[in-house]
Amino acid sequence: MTKPSKDIETVAELLAHAYRIEVDAEERYLMLADQMETHNNPELALMFRKFAGHEKHHAEEIREQMEGMNIPDIKPWDHKWGADESPEAVDINAIRYNMTPWHALQKALDAERKAFDFFDRIACVTTDPEMKKWAEEFRAEEAEHVELVLKELTKHPEPKEGWNHDPDPAVHQE
Ligand code: ZN
């Protein structure tokens, strides 16, 4: 549950948080991609790299927009997410090596929806029209990310029960 946004008071602060969200999300997706490669799931690795690319692109856009602004240098512990991790980061503890594309996409969906909620809340509560404009723009970006994940999910339906049982167990040869 993300409930920090009432404390974000300036556009500069909003942008700094948005930038952090995107950078964290990119790093996390790359980490997931590496894990999937290690565990021989190139399809999923490629997908995560694609997602990381989206986040990176967005982070770069935000950085361009921040140029010339007086952006506060926010330390990790001063971020106003109200949680330990930035809202868009995928929960790394939830990653299992034999996670199917569907499982991984659920994690991605969860992270993108949290990011959406973060900006949505700011867009809804702020009384500053400038802040509202930015928050709505970021919210729209996250809505697109959610759509992308949902689209991938149509290609990777939920596996049937027993998906994690090895269908071809190693046989001990004498
Ligand atoms: Zn996103």
Task: Write a short abstract of this structure.
The protein is an all-alpha fold and 174 residues long. Helix content is 60%, strand content 0%. The protein is built from four helices and no strands.
How is the topology of this model organized?
Layout: H1 11-38, H2 42-66, H3 101-125, H4 129-155
Helix pairs in contact: 1-2, 1-4, 3-4
The structure holds zinc ion.
Can you characterise this structure?
The protein has helices spanning 11-38, 42-66, 101-125, 129-155. It is mainly α. The chain has one domain (11-153): Up-down Bundle (Ferritin). The longest helix has 28 residues, at 11-38. Mean pLDDT is 79; it is low at 1-6. Zinc ion binds next to helix 3 and helix 4.
Bulk shape: elongated
Q: What fraction of the residues are assigned to beta strands by DSSP?
A: under 5%
- The chain-level mean pLDDT equals 79
Which small-molecule species are bound to the chains here? Answer: zinc ion
What's the architecture, going by CATH? Up-down Bundle
Features:
disordered N terminus; 174 residues; Ferritin; 4 helices; 60% helix; 0% strand
